[in-house]
Write a structure and sequence with these properties.
about 290 residues, alpha/beta
């Protein structure tokens, strides 16, 4: 573990594994510790130097004096502090879920500091791409043969209609993974301790996202973007992820079949292959939506 200081003096931590060119990884949650990434599908073993950041107030990072600094746009300063700490001129940047919004805002503010941008099952508020209730429900119906589907689907409908109870949020848990097995249950159970709820409540506070300004700023980004979607992901349905790709000048989208919101957990080989293929193809962009075998 490495520590470094944010501009406001908050002590932040990052975790490093593997060798080679650094790949900076920003967790989602929002505000969940990097620990939930595990080994990110074996990226370090595949030849990538994974640098996982604990955002302020999570994991081994300190809590700030000002809780308002948990807001997503203000966390951009912490990512920049990590880049400076590592001595990188340009970096490879990966963000998952809500962390993809942070990666997007960083890229919009510092377009010359990012070489490749990878957004994994991304939240899309930063660029203003809309996820509809039908996007979520249509994706969910792909699982209709699962034994847990009827209860989970009714709970998802309640959530999309803004009438959900705590029980409904718990009932939709099987939709978060491509396979709702013991490993998936354990991964979900660990989330409560890994997430800073106070920080999460501030992350998307008013003013955090200005989509039109962000899209305008992204026009200056000359690097390549990979948007990695997952076939079964109701949190970031593939249709919405594909639509959000329009905000990035040089973007390609890959959909991992059979995976949910945590694709490195559901399909580590497919996830690692998608990231490695993208990073190993510096001069190629595509406009299509390939599906990995």
């Amino acid at each position: 573990m490495h520590t470094f200081s944010a501009p406001d003096g908050t002590v932040l931590a990052c975790h490093v594994s593997g060798d080679g060119t650094p790949l900076i990884c920003l967790p989602g949650g929002p505000m969940r510790a990097f620990a939930y990434f595990g080994d990110l599908g074996g990226l370090a073993a595949a030849g990538h130097r994974v640098v996982g950041m604990d955002l302020r107030g999570t994991g081994a990072s300190g809590a700030p004096a000002d809780p308002a600094s948990y807001r997503c746009d203000r966390l951009v300063d912490d990512v920049e502090a990590l880049r400076v700490h590592l001595g990188l001129d340009r970096m490879r940047l990966l963000g998952h879920s809500a962390g993809a919004e942070l990666a997007t805002l960083y890229t919009a503010r510092y377009p010359k500091r990012v070489r490749e941008l990878m957004l994994v099952t991304p939240a899309t508020r930063a660029v203003g791409a809309r996820v509809t209730a039908e996007d979520r429900l249509e994706t969910a119906r792909l699982r209709q043969d699962e034994e847990w589907f009827p209860t989970a689907y009714e709970a998802l409908k309640a959530i999309t209609e803004d009438r959900a109870t705590d029980a409904d949020w718990e009932a939709v848990a099987p939709f978060t993974h491509g396979r709702w097995d013991a490993a998936a249950r354990a991964h979900r159970a660990a989330g409560a301790e890994q997430r800073n709820r106070e920080a999460a409540a501030v992350y998307d506070a008013e003013g955090a996202f200005t989509p039109a300004a962000t899209r305008d700023a992204l026009a200056a980004f000359e690097g390549r973007t990979l948007l990695l979607a997952a076939e079964f992901d109701v949190a970031a349905p593939p249709r919405a992820v594909v639509a959000s790709a329009e905000a990035f000048p040089r973007a390609e989208t890959v959909v991992l079949p059979g995976a949910g919101h945590f694709p490195w957990h559901d399909d580590p080989d497919g996830f690692t292959r998608a990231v490695t293929t993208f990073l190993g193809r510096p001069d190629t962009t595509t406009g299509g939506v390939p599906r990995l075998p």
